[in-house]
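Q: Given only this backbone (335 positions), what sequence would you predict?
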């Protein structure tokens, strides 16, 4: 990846906003000698800047703003300027006190601070060069991060489609498991961010079934012991495949352990009670509820009364009793 390539100064435009004509001229001449192509000067008035350039303000690679440290009006003008120009701003002043308020200046959104000195005309050139390079690096990294995120989303989409192509039932099932998992999680007090990640885990809770033969996935009758042994491998398959994606690290335990049992005896590791991650306990309960509620190749949907009875029987055995109580409340509210 190229972090930042050289930019021809002759192609760059710089605007200097300063209330002192002498300092405006000093900075303009310094930048012209340094080879910058276009220099615009005006008083340090953001309204004048907007009226004069409007949308064309985007043409400027950077603005240099002359701040008067002891003037509230000058500070307010800097804030307004930051709001109407998205590129890098350098605050320049002949007052050395500007260095003592550098943190405040950066909080407003300016990139850097410069003390103007008539004996050092190259200082403004070097400061702009540094700020522009830093700004370009930031933009490149930001763009690469967005590309990475888009690639990640595309990978997830492909994964889901692969699983749905093997087992058409999965699409509707996963949707329902996401819905009920989030409803249980919200009632349990999870944050919005946690609910988002829980939902993503629910989407992929059965992803390991991509490694299970289709004749087992779609078998119209119960599975033999050998077939069920193959089916039980799907959490480990999911962990092995999805484990290569750093962005999914926090949801892997939920996917890997959603078939554990509250009293023990589940798979893949036989965890019990609160050894089982909370998200896994929620998804396991939502998964079982939707399986009982849905038509499968080997069964009809259970009546609601039977589902409630099954949940009560499994509370404290297969499922976390606190979560079962929450689900029963939600079912009653849905009815």
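A: Predicted residues:
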């Amino acid at each position: 990846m190229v972090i930042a390539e050289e930019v021809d100064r002759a192609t760059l435009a710089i605007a200097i906003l300063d209330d002192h004509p002498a300092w405006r001229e000093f900075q303009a001449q310094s930048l012209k000698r340094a080879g910058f192509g276009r220099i615009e000067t005006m008083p340090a008035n953001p309204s004048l800047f907007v009226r004069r350039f409007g949308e064309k303000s985007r043409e400027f690679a950077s603005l240099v703003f002359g701040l008067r440290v002891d003037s509230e009006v000058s500070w307010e003008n800097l804030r307004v300027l930051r709001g109407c120009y998205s590129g890098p701003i350098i605050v320049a002043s002949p007052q050395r006190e500007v260095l003592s308020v550098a943190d405040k200046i950066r909080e407003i959104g300016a990139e850097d601070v410069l003390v103007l000195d008539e004996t050092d005309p190259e200082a403004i050139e070097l400061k702009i060069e540094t700020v522009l390079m830093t700004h370009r690096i930031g933009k490149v990294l930001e763009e690469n991060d967005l590309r990475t995120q888009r690639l990640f989303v595309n990978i997830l989409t492909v994964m889901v489609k692969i699983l749905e192509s093997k087992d058409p039932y999965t699409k509707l099932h996963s949707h329902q498991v996401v819905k009920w998992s989030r409803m249980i999680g919200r009632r349990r007090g999870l944050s919005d961010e946690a609910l988002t990640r829980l939902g993503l885990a629910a989407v992929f809770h059965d992803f390991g079934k991509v490694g299970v033969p289709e004749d087992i996935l779609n078998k119209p009758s119960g599975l033999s012991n050998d077939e069920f042994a193959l089916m039980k491998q799907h959490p480990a398959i999911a962990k092995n495949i999805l484990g290569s994606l750093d962005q999914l690290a926090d949801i892997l335990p939920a996917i890997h352990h959603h078939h554990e049992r509250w009293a023990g005896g589940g798979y893949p590791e036989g965890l019990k009670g609160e050894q089982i991650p909370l998200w896994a306990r929620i998804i396991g309960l939502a998964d079982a509820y939707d399986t009982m509620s849905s038509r499968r190749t080997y069964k009809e949907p259970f009546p609601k009364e039977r589902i409630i009875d099954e949940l009560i029987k499994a509370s404290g055995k297969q499922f976390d009793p606190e979560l079962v109580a929450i689900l029963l409340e939600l079912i009653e509210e849905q009815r």
